[in-house]
Design goal:
Oligomer: single chain
Order of helices and strands: HEHEHEHEHEHEEHEHEHHEEHHHH
Strand content: 5-15%
Number of helices: 14
Number of strands: 11
Strand order of the largest sheet: 1-9-8-6-5-4-3-2
Amino acid sequence: MKKTVICDLLGIKYPIIQGGMAWVSTASLAAAVSEAGGLGIIGSGHNDGKWVREQVKRAREITAKPFGVNVMMMSPFVEEVMQVILEERVPVITTGAGNPAKYIPQLKEIGTKVIPVIPSVALAQRLEKAGVDAVVAEGTESGGHIGELTTMTLVPQVVDAVKIPVIAAGGIADGRGLVAAFALGAAGVQIGTRFMCAQECEIHDNVKQMVLKAKDRDTAVSGRTTGHPIRCLKNKLTKLYDEMERRCAPIEEMEELGAGKLRAAMIDGNIETGTVACGQIAGLIKEIKTAEEIINEIVAGARSLMTTLEV
């Protein structure tokens, strides 16, 4: 397997990062991915510092290998989550929905690597100047909150615009996606949706089965009018959002509708009126496997393809 700068930067075997998905990426999944040679990420979402500390400690009981925490900068608990990360000396953080610049000096002091998820060239350049270690260029194919540019168009433009390593995300689930990311100039990949169907992922089985049954056109983007679009599997909730957006419902009404719906799906198994955040690549996922099997399969597929292409 091609060893890249990301492997050296993060101390991992394979240039594969697991996405930090709220209510999906708990210590169980993150530790399993790290044990398998990738970088597991705990998704803090809108959880408080106590929850994050418990997950970090739990992950360390499972693995001695590096792992990270994803921090949502819009979270009401961002200050205490960052404090926990500093106190626990978490090796890596990824960030989304905001600018982590104010925290970078403290994180650098303890050696934490800072890797924001970005949807545009301009933000990548701004964060490079702020001192981040790498960026995840995430295409609109991804699940959850998304930007407008596709992975195919975004990644090479970001690669050309910055000097720090770029990690590709969005629509990647197998060895073909990894090799494609290399071809675009990325030094690694971030994969989310594929790991939703890992055995170690603790989401409700209703969600896993919904992902396994998904086809290529089974996702929808809701909430564009709120300024925070999110890609999910189609269900009664996404249809209701569509109706509200067509009649130009107040943003407050739409935000109230979405409150608590991600947890309702991922934890409680409500796949009808819950938010089943999921990427377009779901149609490629057909089996539940261990995190190790998933990573080994991706690596084997990439190796085979690169040999064929004489890369």
